[in-house]
Amino acid sequence: MFSEIKRLGNYKTDIKTIAIVLLGLVFIFSGFVKIIEPISTRETFHDYLGEMLNLKQYYHGTMVYLLAGILFSAFEFILGIALVIRFKPILTIWVSLLLMGFFTFLTLFLAVTDILPHCGCLGEALKLSNWDTFFKNIAIMIPTLFVFICRKNFAVRKTSSGEWIIIIFGFILMIVLSLIKYYS
After folding, report:
1. Phi, psi (5° rounding) for residue 5?
2. pTM of the entire structure?
3. Which of 31, 84, 160, 184 could form an SS bridge with 77, CB 3.0 to 4.6 Å?
4. Domain containing 109: what range?
5. Per-residue model confidence as pLDDT tens digits over 137-157
């Protein structure tokens, strides 16, 4: 059959598998880039929350933006890991759809209003204009929607303790790595 290319480990390598792994890798890359650049991530959160929610005057220079950036980046990284290892696949697919939907609309708003000069979504690694970011999010929405439509085809199984360890340890490791980068 066309959709089944070959087996990879315990998983069939079909179009659904390729889409969910690619989507997971996007989240892993995006989260990791933000994790290793905590100052840039803090400034991005300062700009987003400060400008959009008018909070600059209340939290300028505080650790609130740093904490928000680190936690979000670690969450984004772990969401990618969860997609790749199929940790609670229905939940992670829903979360990825909601996250991508939110950020797609947010970047459209930023592109139209031009409140911020760039999104900061990939830290200092790659500065994209708001319109570039919006179109990037549209491109990422394609596999996200495909995976969401196929979500019932991903086998729901009992989550192993090893998977829980990967998720929890990974989340803690990303926070520690970001704090080490921040204080070094």
Report:
1. -90, -55
2. 0.85
3. 31
4. 14-183
5. 999 999 999 999 999 888 777
